[in-house]
Design a protein that fits this description.
Chains A, B: One of its GO terms (biological process) is amino acid metabolic process. Chains A, B: InterPro entries: Aromatic_deC, PyrdxlP-dep_de-COase, PyrdxlP-dep_Trfase, PyrdxlP-dep_Trfase_major, PyrdxlP-dep_Trfase_small, Pyridoxal-P_BS. Chains A, B: Belongs to the group II decarboxylase family. The structure is a homodimer. By secondary structure, chain A is of the alpha/beta class. Helices cover 44% and strands 11% of the residues of chain A. Chain A has 16 helices and eleven strands. The longest helix of chain A is centred in the last third of the chain and has 36 residues.
Chain lengths: 516, 516
């Protein structure tokens, strides 16, 4: 025993006793989850008022601690696992994902290289090939085709790793002193992770080029606009190195045309990374696979299994065609990690495929998800979410006060109170908000007002605690995002969510109306 | 239900049933852990031969899967939780750490900003202040003193974040076009994570300056040598921005003199980060606190709670004096994340303190560790590990064939078969290995031979499967590292480990000897 008379901190029987208690705690949490407001209703600083100002000197019992979790932590949680959660993108938990995380935590190995735990490395390579096959990725992305997959924590890391690989590939040719000439490209819909990655990688801020998109093209990136920008940059003596294309943008789940974009990039020898963080999952369904057509022209592809693939946070799946490009930038070889397996070159050392040295045994949870549900059930789960999003879409389309802002691609619907509804039926509302301004005014100022109304709708929906959804603004339009994907969500929850939207819209519209 | 007739992937009762099974599986694993060879004995590619080449189409039962974990995964695991694990640095698990991870996985919130789950942010800030107090960090590192703490995944991330903050702080003054002039400093004992971070951050490879260390100063960094290097760089027109100082290096747990190093750095306006990844933990014991004396002159400080603080991987604790420097480099503000709490500036949004956007609820496990054990027991656990390392040191010192290579600071002992033992008692061995070379030869070639013998000793120890320890090479000396810290380790395991070392040394030395 580590500390004389005290219990060992990893005593198996005490582990068993407390472990069972926490399993029951979490099972009860799921059972009762609908009792809590989806969006936490606490005020900033709430927890400081409830907890001591310093750590306890003497041990406290698990019973006391779990009591405090229930009393003080649960009220401060926004319940991403709630069936009434439709915000951001899902963080879809599952039993299999949870159990895989438990096993990884139980083994608690630090799998930086093959030798430090061979199973951690080998299972990851195997599972990434499995998943690559399920997505019908070109063989060149799989280990079986001299590419390979790796589990990163997040898409942010996947982007930074591939960007650094692309950067160094070019700098090895033109010299490190030319880092200021490197240019990277994306659209105005690309996730903010890319701008941050470029900043971290030392790309000059002026050389972060953003291609504008429009509502008329559903906010997808224009290959022509990309080519024009690149041409001008090359003429100015700059060196294009990297394009980030997105399948399923965060604001509206827009899809960039991979084939034509890769064709442009190819002409300039650029690295193309495809960020399918959200939408990648559903491409395991044959009828959705076309959304990643053209991926064969890209250099790397990633999606988040922790978003909409039942694998708990964090688990981003990244495939690259040329692992050597990654390892040339990210390898380390200190004496204290040297070993015969590495020297034999028969093994993968994943520390050289990622930012950090240490890494968790993440492939276990992905393996458990794939095996527990199989391809068939996974497709079924995802299709059921799309079906529920369609159901919600039907409600929106049937109510003339509302409109769908952009066509739905997956299980996320972008909608709002329609401006036409406002001008035709609720002149009073706008005239009240606009004051002396005429209702037929189509100036940006009017749009701001429509946006304010939709913002108000969202706030009132979320304050109800009954559902949670979030927003974006694209092309100046404030829209509400209804993202289906929480594992516990059933059709009844979607119907109820629509009722909440309608009720809140009634209150907002009628209260204003009745004032006139 | 998500998929008609099938069970919901997060059904509470099925969760309960399977969760209890896995708790028992892991409890049994800990109970039986000594039955397995500590270092996995599998060959590269072992798992591919045992698993199917593609994911199953139909679901498989948890019983089948757990059977496969036992049969196919466990043999490929290097058992970091084994009481006979003394390799690298510990990955010290605990019941509390495990349960905290379970709760975080169960809630599965994505706490990128305050609003996305207020408890995740607030508990982290509170716990980081608690822990900062336990370490007697200057108040300027705590939220209560306008600094603040954040949980990163790994030290690699902590270093990269602080380096980028320091880089951009300077670039804002001298202009982005001068990135090629920036210089960073460390010693030849600094963890390889720093070189990788500098590479990722776009620091010119020529400007990564390594200060040599020597055995005579126990491999700690010389402030004088640092100043000389910086002076020369400044004269050459370069701009010093960052110093990485280490408390407890990976090879020998050497300690850089923080006070004098910070004094040098201060003269040049450099950022100093203190990497106490391993040794930071034990600085909660008053008698060890002096090892981080001088930290008040640094800009940031980090240690890994997942190494030697009973908190499962991953959990790196980072404190900074100037959070604004971090957030100026790492902030993002996309429309889809805008919210009133952020706009009120009353909250911390941790996404702006780290590389990635998404983040797990890591503070839960740290909170559970602090509360379950309290300051008293945590100190007791750590002191027991130091005591066991001392016990092992006694064995080494009492056996004239062995020597301690550098003075022990913490719970890691660096030792080897002594060269004097070889020359006085085992001339035959060396003459056999050296062939015609004279035994009194003190050339590098002789040292290589001594090193080969110690390498052979390590290999035979690890191949026995009874214990696992790793090596390093410092100042040309191959040494074995005996790192105590696995939670299940008791004195009996240390005694047994020494027996293994002795037995293997006997075999190696005698087999050679008997040939003559």
């Amino acid at each position: 025993m580590a500390n004389g008379a005290t219990t060992n901190p990893l005593d198996p029987e005490e582990f068993r006793r407390q472990g069972h208690m926490v399993i029951d705690f979490i099972a009860d949490y799921y059972k009762n989850i609908e009792k809590y407001p989806v969006l936490s209703q606490v005020e900033p600083g709430y927890l400081k008022k409830r907890l001591p100002t310093s750590a306890p000197f003497y041990p406290e019992s698990i019973e006391t601690i779990l009591g405090d979790v229930q009393e003080h932590i649960v009220p401060g949680i926004t319940h991403w696992q709630s069936p009434n959660y439709f915000a951001y993108f899902p963080s879809s938990g599952s039993i299999a994902g949870f159990l895989g995380e438990m096993l990884a935590t139980g083994f608690n190995v630090v799998g930086f290289n093959w030798m430090s735990s061979p199973a951690a490395t080998e299972l990851e390579s195997i599972v990434m090939d499995w998943l690559g096959q399920m997505l019908r990725l070109p063989k060149s992305f799989l280990f079986s085709g001299n590419g390979g997959g790796v589990l990163q924590g997040t898409t942010c890391e996947a982007i930074l790793c591939t960007l650094v690989a692309a950067r160094d590939r070019t700098l090895r040719i033109i010299g490190n002193e030319n880092i200021g000439k490197l240019v990277v490209y994306c659209s105005d819909q690309t996730h903010c992770a890319f701008k941050k990655a470029a900043q971290i990688a030392g790309i000059h801020p002026d050389n972060f080029k953003v291609i504008p998109t429009t509502l008329s093209s559903s906010f997808s990136m224009s290959p022509k606009a990309l080519r024009n920008t690149i041409t001008a940059d090359v003429e100015a003596g700059l060196v294009p190195i990297f394009l980030l294309a997105t399948v399923g943008t965060t604001s509206t789940t827009a899809v960039d045309p991979l084939g034509p974009l890769c064709d442009v990039a190819k002409d300039y020898g650029m690295w193309v990374h495809v960020d399918a963080a959200y939408a990648g999952s559903i491409c395991i369904c044959p009828e959705f696979r076309h959304f990643i057509d053209g991926v064969e022209g890209a250099n790397s592809f990633s999606f988040n299994a922790h978003k909409w693939f039942f694998t708990t946070l964090d688990c981003c799946c990244l495939w690259v065609k040329d692992p050597t490009a990654l390892t040339q930038s990210l390898s380390t070889d200190p004496e204290y990690l040297k070993n015969k397996a590495t020297e034999s070159k028969q093994v993968v050392d994943y520390k050289d495929w990622q930012l950090a040295l240490s890494r968790r045994f993440r492939s276990l949870k992905l393996w458990l998800v794939l095996r527990s549900y199989g391809v068939e059930k996974l497709r079924g789960f995802l299709r059921s979410h799309v079906k529920m999003a369609k159901l919600f879409q039907g409600f929106v389309e049937a109510d003339e006060r509302f409109e769908v802002v952009v066509p739905r691609n997956f299980a996320t619907l972008c909608f709002r109170i329609s401006p036409s509804a406002l001008t035709t039926n609720n002149n009073a509302i706008l005239s009240e908000i606009n004051g002396s301004r005429r209702i037929s005014d189509t100036s940006p100022k009017k749009m701001v007002t429509e946006n304010e109304l939709n913002n108000k709708l969202m706030d009132s929906i979320n304050r109800s605690g009954r559902v949670y959804m979030t927003h974006s603004v694209v092309g100046g339009i404030f829209l509400l995002r209804f993202a289906v994907g929480a594992s516990l969500t059933e059709e009844s929850h979607v119907i109820e969510a629509w009722n909440v939207v309608k009720q809140q819209a009634d209150i907002i519209l009628n209260s204003h109306h009745s004032e006139f």
